[in-house]
């Protein structure tokens, strides 16, 4: 039992002689030794054991080789391996630190990719919006003049018709081009063109609202405008396809004051939650295609996203986004805000969407982000943020 070369002895040799192992060693250690001795006697092979013993103030590690000598005697040689153990511990610690650093690096990298993606998307959207804005305003502005000039020209034609005393040639031409119809139709065409350009102007405005991605300070923002601009960007995914029925969006907007926030980042949160909701509705529909079709006529299972906003406690606003999609098990729900957690096929999801959204809401805006979900029934994300900072 004497550690060779160790500065301290567990027990002086005289203390050990003639005593049973359980009287000398701590009970767990003694059991371990007895087992190993039995094994050595049984197999006739050298058995290696590692154990620690309290010596003075410290725990000292030993490695012992137990070899059978005769049928009921063994020889045991032990040596102090504390230094090696210490190094192993250090190595384990270093490996853990490295793994942690690696995890942090991957997280930062993914965050940067997401931020970069959003920022490029924002720049692209802003660029497109800018390019469309000028020509559409030009067309829209000129439509009013065109309307006025057309009225004048039609007036002149009318006058000429009266003054010409219905000359035959003129009459023939009028009939040929169906002047009566043109007179009715031109104002209608102009008016529908105006509706069209007005719609494009609204879209451009939404794109501009959505692309306020790089705004680097808190600004008072109309939350409904932000949500609408995000819905606008995702518009194509709400439409009916051969596989999926159209997604219905229900907006239940309360009266909200302007909210101080980073609007670009908040748009990113809306985008992540809405994109997940659409994915969840698609998944549900694919898994339950027949059920959905059977119930569609009754309107029971129309894929729906409901957005509700309200003021709570006067200092806070609440934005709830719910879907009646695939839903989440408790197990998934627990992990939804974890970095890299995804249930989507490789290449589709990075698993960073909700992690980043959680950080934006809690850390950047000092708010709360909660998730309520029932499998096969749907999911609701509830954002609460302070109105002022
Ligand atoms: N509305 C929802 N309904 C059902 N499951 C959801 C919903 N929102 C999130 N989840 C689950 O949480 C997981 C994590 O979502 P998260 O947005 O963080 O990552 P992702 O959508 O998989 O990938 P990405 O980083 O591209 O957004 C999803 O893979 C999905 O399983
Ligand atoms: Mg997502």
TrEMBL record:
It catalyses: ATP + protein L-histidine = ADP + protein N-phospho-L-histidine. Keywords: Coiled coil, Kinase, Phosphoprotein, Transferase, Two-component regulatory system. Transmembrane segments: none annotated. Pfam families: HATPase_c, HisKA, PAS_4. Residues 77-118 form a coiled coil. Residues 127-389 form the Histidine kinase domain. Its EC number is 2.7.13.3. One of its GO terms (molecular function) is phosphorelay sensor kinase activity. It is an enzyme of class 2 (transferase). This is histidine kinase. It comes from Nostoc punctiforme NIES-2108.
């Amino acid at each position: 039992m004497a550690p060779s070369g160790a500065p301290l002895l567990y027990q002086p040799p005289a203390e050990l002689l003639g005593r049973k192992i359980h009287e000398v060693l701590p009970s767990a250690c003694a059991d371990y030794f007895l087992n190993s001795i039995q094994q050595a006697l049984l197999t006739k092979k050298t058995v290696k054991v590692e154990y620690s013993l309290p010596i003075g103030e410290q725990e000292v590690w030993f490695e012992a080789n137990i070899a059978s000598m005769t049928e009921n005697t063994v020889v045991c040689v032990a040596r102090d391996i504390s230094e090696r153990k210490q190094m192993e511990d250090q190595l384990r610690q270093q490996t853990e630190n490295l793994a942690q650093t690696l995890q942090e690096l991957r997280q930062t990298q993914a965050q940067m990719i997401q931020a970069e993606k959003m920022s490029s998307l924002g720049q692209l959207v802003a660029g497109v919006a800018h390019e469309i804005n000028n020509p559409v305003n030009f067309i829209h502005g000129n439509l009013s003049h065109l309307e006025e000039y057309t009225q004048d020209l039609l007036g002149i034609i009318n006058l000429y018709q009266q003054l010409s005393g219905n000359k035959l040639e003129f009459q023939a031409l009028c009939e040929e081009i169906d002047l009566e119809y043109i007179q009715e139709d031109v104002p209608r065409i102009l008016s529908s063109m105006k509706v069209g350009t007005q719609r494009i102007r609204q879209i451009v405005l939404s794109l501009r609202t959505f692309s306020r991605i790089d705004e680097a300070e808190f600004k008072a923002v109309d939350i409904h405008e932000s949500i609408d601009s995000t819905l606008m960007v995702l518009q194509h995914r709400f439409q009916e396809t051969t596989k999926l029925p159209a997604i219905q969006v229900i907006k239940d907007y309360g009266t909200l004051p302007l909210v101080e926030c980073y609007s670009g980042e908040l748009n990113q949160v809306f985008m992540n939650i809405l994109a997940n909701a659409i994915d969840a509705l698609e998944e549900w529909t694919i898994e339950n295609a027949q059920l959905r079709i059977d119930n569609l006529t009754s309107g029971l299972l129309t894929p729906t996203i409901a957005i509700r906003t309200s003021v709570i406690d006067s200092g806070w606003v609440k934005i709830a986004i719910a879907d009646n999609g695939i839903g989440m098990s408790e197990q998934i729900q627990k992990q939804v805000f974890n970095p890299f957690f995804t249930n989507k096929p490789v290449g589709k999801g990075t698993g960073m969407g909700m992690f980043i959204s959680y950080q934006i809401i809690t850390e950047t805006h000092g708010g709360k982000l909660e998730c309520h979900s029932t499998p096969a029934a749907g999911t609701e994300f509830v954002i609460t943020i302070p109105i002022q900072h």
